[in-house]
Amino acid sequence: MALSVGVGSVAGTQLAVRFGTKLIVTVGLVAMAGFYGWVAATTSATLGYGVIAVQMVLYGLGMGLTSAPATESIMGAVSRRQAGVGSAVNDTTRLLGGTLGVAVIGSVYGSRLTAGLPTGLPHAVTAIAHQSLGAAYAVAARVPGAAGQAVHDAATNAFLHGLSVGCLVAGGVAAAGAILAVLFLPAQPASPPAVTPAETLPAKVPARD
After folding, report:
1. CA neighbours within 13 Å on the CB side: how many for 127?
2. Residue 176 and residue 100: Cα distance in Å, rounded?
3. How far apart are CA 18 and CA 188, in angstroms?
4. What tens digit of pLDDT does each residue of 163-203 get?
5. Looking at 115-208, which runs of residues are DSSP E strands?
6. Rounded Cα–Cα distance for residues 25 and 41 (Å)
7. What is the pTM of this model?
């Protein structure tokens, strides 16, 4: 995925200059929305890595095509004196998206796991299982008999369900972003105002008598 992001970022910058920021950012967001929909539709405990690798390539290309031209649009819309503000806005969008994904997946995982765990487990066991999927697997390995397998299966189903819901939310956000890009994003990055030769020359000092 990292390699795909690098390739997409380089290609996205060059393509945006040729075909316009609006088109390239929209294509990147559509690719990301397609990735999220694909993952939500195919996620399972038995999914092969070959499919996952192709999905990661699609996501990386979409992110690369989107990130570089979109960043250029943000930074090109502000003056040099406001470059810090533009950079902060750009970073905020990334952090907000990451936080949203973690919050959605985590909350869905917790609620689904609570409903799927077998009754009668000690509170300490259920509390550890709610920490993460790895913690739930560790608990399942220590719980003997069918209860341990039930914890394992409940954690797996809860995680996959949370991942699917999170992908659907993220895909909806990416699709909405593509629509907003078509409607509002400038076709080309904003360029700084041209400086005339008269503005670059020092003012003529009047001669003294």
Report:
1. 3
2. 15
3. 9
4. 999 999 999 999 999 999 999 888 765 554 454 455 445 55
5. none
6. 24
7. 0.80
